[in-house]
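Data availability (excerpt). The following record was deposited with the supplementary files.
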Amino acid sequence: MTIRKVLLVDDEPDIRKIGTLALERVGGLEVTQASSGLEALELAVAAAPDVILLDVMMPELDGPATFSRLRELPELADTPIVFLTAKVQKNEVERYMELGAKGVIKKPFDPMTLADEVRRVADGT
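Predicted structure:
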């Protein structure tokens, strides 16, 4: 799977900024940012991402709830979704995977390897 476009969903401006820089400058990817689950739902179809990076803990609509709503959109039903979170206890990761996530990337992430990690997780390798 070739990944060119990423939708990065996180309520923390610093995470969005660093993540976007890492994915665009280091990884050569095109990034659309969303600051909330609701904004992600508004932008996702038009952004047509190859993969969605989704924060778990957000106000209003958290990551798992956003995940479920994204899956209801026919255009995104098969788009790989990777959770981005500091909560990586075994039972939490298992829960995200049971929802249908392609994988989990731990925060804080390494900006120099983020794009490669996104590609690896989205490819399932």
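Summary of structural features: Residues 5-123 form a domain with the Rossmann fold fold (CATH 3.40.50.2300).
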